[in-house]
Design a protein that fits this description.
Helices cover about 40% and strands about 10% of the residues. By secondary structure, the protein is an alpha+beta fold. It has a 3-stranded mixed beta sheet. The radius of gyration is 28 Å and the shape is elongated. It starts with a helix and ends in a 24-residue tail after the last strand. The relative contact order is 0.09.
C-alpha cells in the first residue's frame, strides 16, 4: 500500500466515514431506512462554531488557541493603561511572561498579580495560566563589544 493510501486510511479512521471499498469486492446497495429520510432525527444542520469547537477539542488545540487569544486580548484583560506599559511575551509551563516598560511598572503589576490572574481565569480558563512573571526592560550588557574589558566589569562605576 502506498504512503498516500496509508495516510488516507489513517484520516478516514480519525475523522470517520465509510471504509474504502477494496478492488474486487462488490458492495450491495442497501438503503438505510433510519436517518435517510428527510426530516428524520439527527439530520438537522449543526452550527459551524460547534463543529470547529469539536474539531479543536479532538485535535487538542483548545489550550494553545486560548493562550494565543489571551496574548491578543491583553489590553481588554489588563486595561488600556496597563497595556500601554506592558506586553505579554509568551506562556510557558503555566507561566505568563509579561515585559514591562520600566521596573516601576513591573513592581506595580506584581502587586496586581492576583487581580490579573482572576481576570485571566474568568476569560480564558483553558489557557492554563498559573502565575505571571513580570520582567523589567532589558538591561544593557557590557560583556561584548569593542570596549569590553575582561575582569570585574562595571560594578562600581555608577556611584
Amino acid at each position: 500500500m502506498s504512503e498516500a493510501a496509508r495516510t488516507y486510511q489513517h484520516f478516514r479512521e480519525i475523522f470517520g466515514g465509510e471504509p474504502r471499498i477494496r478492488p474486487g469486492r462488490v458492495r450491495s446497495r442497501t438503503r438505510d431506512a433510519a436517518g435517510s429520510e428527510p426530516f428524520s432525527p439527527g439530520r438537522d444542520p449543526k452550527p459551524l462554531g460547534a463543529t470547529i469547537d469539536a474539531l479543536t477539542a479532538q485535535l487538542g488545540w483548545t489550550a494553545p488557541l486560548s493562550q494565543h487569544e489571551l496574548l491578543a486580548t491583553w489590553p481588554e484583560i489588563a486595561g488600556e493603561e496597563i497595556a500601554l506599559h506592558s506586553e505579554p511575551i509568551a506562556i510557558e509551563g503555566g507561566v505568563l511572561q509579561v515585559r514591562c516598560e520600566s521596573t516601576a511598572w513591573a513592581t506595580q503589576l506584581r502587586m496586581m498579580r492576583s487581580d490579573l490572574l482572576r481576570a485571566i481565569a474568568e476569560r480564558h480558563p483553558q489557557a492554563g495560566v498559573d502565575t505571571i512573571r513580570f520582567q523589567g526592560p532589558d538591561a544593557p550588557t557590557w560583556k561584548r563589544g569593542p570596549r569590553s574589558v575582561p575582569g570585574r566589569g562595571p560594578r562600581d562605576t555608577y556611584g
